[in-house]
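Re: the request from the purification team.
They wanted to know what the chain is likely to look like in 3D before they choose a buffer screen. I agreed to run a prediction and write the result into the notebook, where they can find it.
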Amino acid sequence: MACAPGRIRGTGSAGMPVRICLALIACLLGLASCSPDEPDDPPGNGEEVALHLELVYGEDDLDAATRIEVETEVGDVLSRYVAGAFLGDYPRQDFVASFEDFTPRAARSAATHIEVMTGTGFEDASSVRASALDARLSLFAPPDGVLAATATIDFKFEVTQDSTTSTATLSGRLMLVREQGNWSVFGYDVELDDGGALDAAVS
């Protein structure tokens, strides 16, 4: 049974409506753009890809060390989320642990949208591999430091089930906050397009 893509939104740890955060992020994203460095060759069949993170706004007043630190820390959060939510050995059922880098409130919200936020909709697949993991990062960095960020994501996965391979795409935004030196996802506005191959949708 085919399904329509599901789009979901989550609220941050402090109860801040996501639409307020998105208004700020939309302004930031509209101010800058960048041409990413493309890899020389696309990954071969069966080869897992790494996260490609592009900093597109908010780095102008940061020194090189701070910029690298932020990119590394946010990249680690996104990579752990992808690995826990969509990759690993299939068939599988352990998806809730993928929200370990979410704030408590965001994790509870994401758990109610687990079929969009994770690969639970194709838990019976024989394999799931990442074919593209692209993220464009915008920072909220007032003079007292980098406080928050949004990652505009375009994650593509090849899902093999019943000897048929289809493409699933997770796209949208993950909002992150830095508290006591640690980054956490506090909100999201994403959709999962499974190509009509799976029966899972949240709207």
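For the purification team: Residues 1-6, 11-45, 197-203 have pLDDT under 50 and may be disordered.
Please add any questions underneath this entry.
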